[in-house]
Amino acid sequence: MAGDELRHFCALAGVAGHPEAAYLTYLGLYSLQHRGQEAAGICSADGETTHLYKALGLVNDVFRPERIAGLAGHLAIGHTRYSTTGSPHTANTQPIRSTSRSGSLALAHNGNLTNTPSLRAALEEEGAIFQTTMDTELILHLVARSRAPHLEARIIEALEQVQGAWCLLFVTENALIAARDPLGIRPLCLGRLGSSWLVASETCAFDIVGGRFERDVEPGEMIVIRDGELCSHRLPAAPETHPCIFEFVYFSRPDSRIYGEKVDKVRRGLGRNLAREHPAEADIVIAVPDSSNTAALGYARESGLPFELGLIRNHYVGRTFIQPGPEQRDHDVRVKFNPVGGVLDGKRVVVVDDSIVRGTTSRKLLRLIRAAGAREVHMRVTCPPVAWPCFYGVDIPTRSELIGARLSIEEIRKHIGADSLGYLSLEGMLAAVERPGPMCHACFSGSYPVEPEPELGKDALEGNRGCPP
Ligand code: SF4
Q1: Rounded CA gap, 374 and 212, in Å?
Q2: How far is the CA of 71 from the centre of ligand 1 (A)?
Q3: Which backbone phi and psi does 5 adopt, to 5 degrees?
Q4: CA of 356 to the centre of ligand 1 (A)
């Protein structure tokens, strides 16, 4: 279950042309909390200056009413963070803000750059001093060093030098700028609320403020919103776009729409295709809540088996939960999930999960389900084995920690203690998505749409490139 073994990356939300821009951005971040729980920040602008507040913690803990009141202006950008590059201390929170001859410029970033080492080395060679360990700061340096005549041209010049995955929100004293990398790896959506503009990683951030989805920010597009007017610029196009398929499998909320498709619909399709590929002789279908609920419904409907609530999730387990000692080995999973004995007792159970990363949590969870009386446990996973690291903003462990890179499917079945184990095939996963064109599936296939510089890839791959996944 990815939720316990994978960390999200980051979320972006922004508002232009509204007197309560910071408050609406706060609400947007609130609905995007699932994408990053380590830190949150908002930078607003009132036409003359920018106002920034950010801190470690959940959105609701970071922003009290007096903090929001201090973020004046009709423009705002916000960010929630889980650190995928840079360590989780206050200096690495976002948005980050700089002052140059262009004035004040704040930036929030979702994704990871793949050419950080060479960019950083070149900037350091020229005397640049960095305040953070985040790749995001490099972009502000590149903008500040550009000789182009105006800010938009400087940003475009900077973005032409960075590679990898980057959805960006900038705010100046009087403009909000949104940009998405030419490969379109991470989602970024554009919405409206009356005459105001909204931008966010997922459309659930529009719903919470009563806004409506307008369209995606296109891959390789930079949008400038100033004085209520939107102007679109194009960056050099990539031959093909490669949106992240894991957004559909796990990361995005099922009530969101990304890459032009409803996440709920795709996730039900994953469950349906999984039931076709891996049927099971069983009595009931249960989900590992919450991220697998929708896919389990798809599996149940296709297989004709009843969907039951066999596991209850405790939503209030904080990041500071004290990990148990070895003698209480299942307590960490017990704190998060409680099996419903009356549902499971004596049953042959299909357990639908979104992914298996290290396998540790699956093993403990299946032990709990059996202890609650399940007669048989058939594990079904809505994606192929995760066997490769991600260089585009998702904290997937190194290959030596990924059970899908080390063991065969039969060995994994034995390790987690399932009566049977079925993973959705790569073809079955991609077939659940209607949008035409390729998608990034590198963490399943090892086929990367943009290679990371060797220095970035070395540790994560641990010299294992070329091994079969
Ligand atoms: Fe998404 Fe996996 Fe590609 Fe990363 S490697 S962008 S998680 S599909």
Answers
A1: 45
A2: 35
A3: -125, -10
A4: 15
- Cα separation, 154 vs 138, in Å, equals 13
DSSP 108-176: EEES-BS-HHHHHHHHHHTT---SSS-THHHHHHHHHH---SSHHHHHHHHHTT--B--EEEEE-SS-E
Q: Does any ligand 1 atom lie closer than 6 A to the CB of residue 250?
A: no
Ligand 1, atom nearest to 439 Cα: 8
Tell me if 433 CB under 6 Å of ligand 1.
Answer: no
In the reported structure, the alpha carbon of residue 270 is separated from the centroid of ligand 1 by a whole-number distance in angstroms of 17
Residue 448 beta carbon below 6 angstroms from any ligand 1 atom: no
Q: How many CB atoms within 10 Å of residue 70?
A: 12
What residue owns the CA closest to ligand 1's atom 1?
244
Domains and CATH numbers, the chain: 10-241 (3.60.20.10), 268-314+324-433 (3.40.50.2020)
Sign of CA dihedral 261, 267, 270, 272: negative
Whole-number pLDDT of residue 334: 83
Indicate whether residue 258 lines ligand 1 (CB < 6 A): no
Intervals of the chain under pLDDT 50: 2-4, 463-469
For residue 305 and ligand 1, the question of a CB distance below 6 A is answered with: no
Query: pLDDT tens across 22-42, in order?
Result: 999 999 999 999 998 889 999
In this predicted model, what pLDDT tens digit does every residue of 425-460 receive, in sequence order? 999 999 999 988 999 999 999 999 998 888 776 556
Which pLDDT does position 318 carry in this prediction?
61
248 DSSP assignment: I
Please indicate whether residue 10 is annotated as part of the active site: yes
